[in-house]
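Review session, final week

We close the course with one last complete record, chosen because it touches almost every idea we covered. It is Chromosomal replication initiator protein DnaA, a protein from Bifidobacterium callimiconis with 575 residues. Go through it on your own first, then we will talk.
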Amino acid sequence: MSSDTATPAEDAQRIWTIACSSLRHDDTLTPRDMSCVEDITPVSVFDSMIVLNASNEITRLTIENKEAVLRALQAANGGEPLVPLIKIVPPASASKNARSASRTTAKQNETSADTARTATAAERAGSAKGPDGATSASSSSSSTAKAAVTDRDVRKGLRDLPSPDLPASAKPAKPRASFTPMPGSGRFVQEKLDDFADVPTKDQLERTIAVPGVPAGGAKVARDEETHLNRNATFETFVPGDSNRFARAVSLAVAEAPGLSFNPLCIYGGSGLGKTHLLNAIGNYALSENPKLKVRYVNSEEFTNEFIESLQGEAQTNGLIAEFNRRYREVDVLLIDDIQFLGGKEATLEQFFHTFNALHDANKQIVIASDVAPKNLKGFEQRLISRFDSGLSVDVKPPDRETRIAILRMKAQISNLEIPNDVLDLIAEQVTDNIRELEGALTRVTAMASLNNQPITRLLAEQTLQDFFTTEVEIKPTDIITQVAQYFQLTFDDLVGPWRAKNVALARQIAMYMTRELTSLSLVDIGEIFGGRDHSTVMHAYKKIQSGMAQKREVYNYVNELTGRIKRHSNPGMG
């Protein structure tokens, strides 16, 4: 029960201290569970929610799913239920909060506000501190070390597990200071890594965004500061085909008359098929027709972070929750991407539910994008799914051959390249259902031609893509990380951990690039696998390696050799 004189930050500190005292005597909690409890930093209390900071995804999942924690919070709150709302912040920021907890109330609030402002731009290097409090995953049990690492484990945040081929005993507590590639990997020149520092600037994060639905690598684009729209993602740059023509037509109709039909509009389909492009195209077209419209594009991660920040510390006293409500409930067109990632986040979904109702009742247009149809969304209440189903749901499918050729041709046009038709045909025939792999194949061919100062021919394309086209076996991100780590004589944990040494940064960016290229995972998924990093960091790494392949032969060789290794490992029959 909150006191009348205490601040929200003081209430949060008091409640969490009482809850922790109770949890330390709870026999149902393991030492691992208690290490997660100790990892939490209380921030603020708002209505029936307590805002908490955690250093990694494992802590968040543990705290949210422990009935003992919910019971302790309720008891500490005078018997009233209290829902934990947990945000992942970098360990450095979490340490700052922990130190400031013993200071004055004013200092607590100041630190909480600083953490809120920096958390969204910083990488969420959650794996720096494991759930047992160690800074290295080498403390995992021997039985865990022997277990195979699955994609599901990685997605759930179990990044303290070693890779299948690297025993825990072989993993150092700290990254190596020096770096020597494996034989055959090409000479490694340290000074050439300056362009690959793993610390993208704010400008880089905002401006190196690929054009969704069209292969990236062309002109860099900027997100509009007010609307967050990608200005280059328009209906003109969206390549239509049988797989997406209906979705494009409906999207255009919505853009021409927002709120009058197909409201809400739900666009769903696999990763990399153009959903994000269509959302941005709707916003851009609507604004071109009526510049007075209030339009906002946001992905689920940004929506969640903004909501949590509006509840932290002095944010409440400054009226940021009211500002958050105005920002999202007074728009004419709201475009929300990757909504599936809101699943299970009860407090955020409750806020979105009220936002949805306010906009829908006012005949404002709502467009959402998801990887599955609304009825298949996990962790959503039926009342929200029924509202999604009250509008129109359209899907986008993998492009057919003609559309794949058209996408390649637009990619070439954006990059001012002359690509022979037989080369486009070759790539389109071999890559059938993944636009990113389609893009990656063309990037490799053009990079090889540029490095060797050769014309682009079918023979060059066949030689360059010999390993690229070899197998249809599904490639797992854990396989990619393991192979890249071995190639650069690093460990699995080096690549998913927080270290930013240049040799680790380059290897990590290559692993991110290849995961983006060779799997269907979204940017958010990849970021979670690589230590809980932000999706914009993944995109920065992707663009950095993509451009580096055409400029530095060693980067091209790394990616090309690793492709062969990864595909041979995934399909031993290749020899």
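Two points worth writing down before the exam:
The radius of gyration is 24 Å.
The mean pLDDT is 74.
Good luck, everyone.
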